[in-house]
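User: I'll paste a sequence; please echo it back and then give the predicted structure.

Assistant: Echoing your sequence first, then the prediction.
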Amino acid sequence: MRRFLPDKVTCASALSGLLLACAFPLPDYTILAWFGLIPLVLVMQSRPFKSGFVAGMVFFAVTLYWLNIVMITYGHLPLAVSFLIYLLLVGYLALFWGAATWAACRLKEFRNYSYALTFPVFWVALEFMREFLLTGFPWATLGYSQQAWLAMIQSADLFGVYGLSYLLILCNAVLGESILALRHKPPQHVPVKALVATVVLLLCNYGYGQWCLQQDLDTRPESLQVAVIQGNIPQELKWHPDSQLSTVKTYRDLSLLANQAGASDLIIWPEAAMPFYFQDGGQLSGSVSELPLETGASLLFGSPAYHRGAGIHEDAGVNKDTGILRYLNSAFLLSPTAQVLGRSDKVHLVPFGEYVPLGEYLPFVNKLVAGIGDYSPGEINPLPIQGYQLGVLVCYEVIFPGLAREYVRQGSALLVNITNDAWFGRSSAPWQHLAMSRFRAIENRVWLARAANTGVSAFIAPSGRIVEQTSLFDTAFLASEVGLGARPGLYFHMGDLIPGAFLIISLIWLLQTRRRFL
């Protein structure tokens, strides 16, 4: 019977995964991330890859449990199929944790490099890889666990979210190595230098954060009076033709109330707020266009769009224009005179949600999200407003640091995140999504306005403070003054140079053990 029970390594690794998951929203016990990996560090030398993989499986299984809500409720997948896909994704993500522990243990065994030196480097390098490998899915990067501790996350304008990940893993590694040294028989020397260096870095990070919070980070010479509208349209009704009129009315009524509350410059509706082709015109589009004329404010709203491009098809040696139709997940900006000032199309699409990777080779795979057809990626296109630019991040684009940074690099003075988190139900996912949005504001020291169909809508200041926010599944609006202009720091200029360097260093270290592979 004992052989069917989990061993010490499995239990300790699973405990670490659970502790770290609890550091994220919800329940958001931030402090757990600073020591939650110690059980893993204590046992990982025994089973280098397995320990990290088990910890990763538990962490991502707990953090991403809401994927089953999306697949079963809205993807209409059978429970067994949903659970299988969920486990496959969790297993894929856990590979990165397993690779980090394996690599750190390998360097410890063959080169006697301490965990404090190697583990944070490998971890950050692999988190960075997760941002772009196989289209990328950097959800629940470890640094996001600190989103509620404003003083600790101010350094995101220096090193991004990966800087926080580095400090967290460094702290866990040093504490774990200290315990290992004391438990060794005979006891070994505690890594005093590593402990001192860690304490200094933590104090510097906290001190920098406190200094930042005492500065006037959020005030700008120019500002806009902005409203974000939370229509709270049920997902099962959103795309139903009979609901289109009531959907437009809901958003119009809330916008008029927001305008009366002071939103005189810009009104923002969520992703796909208008579930029809605005560009086709007609009664519904006309009703939307009338709103800026009534309020005197510009209107930014999500709507599907399409573009008919020229394609060439060779048939018997004759070139023909095929008129290829591309569908886009877009945001339109209307001026106070109802002129279309521009359209911003979603750049980073959700695999299996907005398109099927390798779809022509996998015709049997359907998208999980009901829609109008496979979307195509757009291009970064800031939208003009009153002599400034808006950078529009659609839905989960806000979890990609480089994309937000590029919008600011191209002149965006205000970041806008429009999203539809109704897919997630009353899970922790909307709060996790909001947490990641806070880092984009800090990294670029820019205001961020967030309009979500069912919540959480919010205004986030350049300091990362959430100035106002709604509750989940409320029909509501928020009106606030937001500053214009970014005051970016080192991260804006350097980008992810350090995580990239860590990736190169990791490869060099592993090459030092290449003979051991043979």
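The mean pLDDT is 92. The first helix runs from residue 8 to 21.
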